[in-house]
Design brief:
CATH class of one domain: Alpha Beta
Number of helices: 2
CATH topology of one domain: Alpha-Beta Plaits
Largest sheet: 2 strands, antiparallel
Bound molecules: iron/sulfur cluster
Helix content: 10-25%
CATH architecture of one domain: 2-Layer Sandwich
Number of strands: 4
Order of helices and strands: EHEEHE
Radius of gyration: 17 Å
Distance between the termini: 42 Å
Length: about 90
């Protein structure tokens, strides 16, 4: 089960942790080049998403995690899939 961000519904957080899978190794913290993540104060718990607005969505933290405990959530505008206009039919 992925933990909610704790920042409130109006604050988009790109990284979600599965607290049952995370072992608190902090490999994801170490690999993030823009220091989005900080280690938890409690040993063995998932890191804190300290600066969510700085995330590049590079996926390095996801790839570094050996327990598959991170889910990267892209903003809605990044999820848009472009299609050729001609493929939409003649109604446009
Ligand atoms: S996706 Fe990239 S920039 Fe964002 S937290 Fe993970 S490693 Fe850092
Ligand atoms: S790399 Fe994976 S297991 Fe290690 S702290 Fe990050 S989320 Fe948890």
């Amino acid at each position: 089960m992925y933990r909610e961000s704790g920042y409130g519904a109006d604050f988009f957080v790109p990284i979600q942790y599965d607290e049952k899978k995370c072992i608190g190794c902090n490999l994801c913290v170490d690999i993030c080049q823009v220091d989005v993540l900080l280690p938890s104060e409690r040993k063995g718990e998932n890191p804190i998403v300290a600066f969510p607005g700085e995330c590049w969505y590079c996926g390095s933290c996801v790839m570094a995690c050996k327990t598959d405990a991170i889910r990267l959530v892209h903003p809605l505008m990044n999820q848009v899939r472009w299609v050729e206009k001609d493929s939409l039919g003649s109604s446009l």
